[in-house]
């Protein structure tokens, strides 16, 4: 990665906070659908269309949004900075990355308990490991979910 790219990402990370982050998050949820100033204002409950316009134009200036000929905004670039780096976007859904690990370890633990229900020293160690991993990943998933914009 070049210095210029790192500088741009640092600028985006420093500017992408507060209401601007909320507007960007909402645009990501729209997933390439066009959104107008008033739509963003209503969705986020902003005080006026000019506030929505300010944040949309700020995102456009950062190179994250583009504007079509009808004045609608669309996501041009997805960035993984700040809290956004902990989320995976699948269509209109934004899910914490740790959710996939939590589901995997929980499923593996329950499958092991169902398949090998016998209690031995080895099975206790395996179940403790699975339980610890599941708890740790669920904890991180919930913690990140609470931090979402």
Provide a quick synopsis of the model.
By secondary structure, this protein is mainly alpha-helical. The chain has helices spanning 3-15, 18-30, 37-44, 49-61, 98-115, 121-147; strands at residues 65-67, 73-75, 87-90, 93-96.
Specify the CATH class of the largest domain.
Mainly Alpha
Strand sequence of the main sheet, in spatial order? 1-2
What form results from the Cα inertia axes? elongated
Proportion of helical residues: 55-70%
Give the beta-strand count.
4
* Unreliable parts: none
Return the average pLDDT rounded to an integer.
86
What does this structure look like?
The chain has helices at 3-15, 18-30, 37-44, 49-61, 98-115, 121-147; strands at 65-67, 73-75, 87-90, 93-96. The longest helix is centred in the last third of the chain and has 27 residues, at 121-147. It is built from six helices and four strands. The chain is elongated, with a radius of gyration of 21 Å. The strands form two sheets. The chain has a two-stranded antiparallel sheet with strand order 1-2. Strands 3-4 form a two-stranded antiparallel sheet. The two termini are 28 Å apart. It folds into two domains: 3-85, Winged helix-like DNA-binding domain superfamily/Winged helix DNA-binding domain (Arc Repressor Mutant, subunit A, Orthogonal Bundle); 97-147, no CATH class. The protein is mainly alpha-helical and 149 residues long. The mean pLDDT is 86. Helix 2 (18-30) packs across helix 4 (49-61), helix 3 packs across helix 4 and helix 5 (98-115) packs antiparallel against helix 6 (121-147).
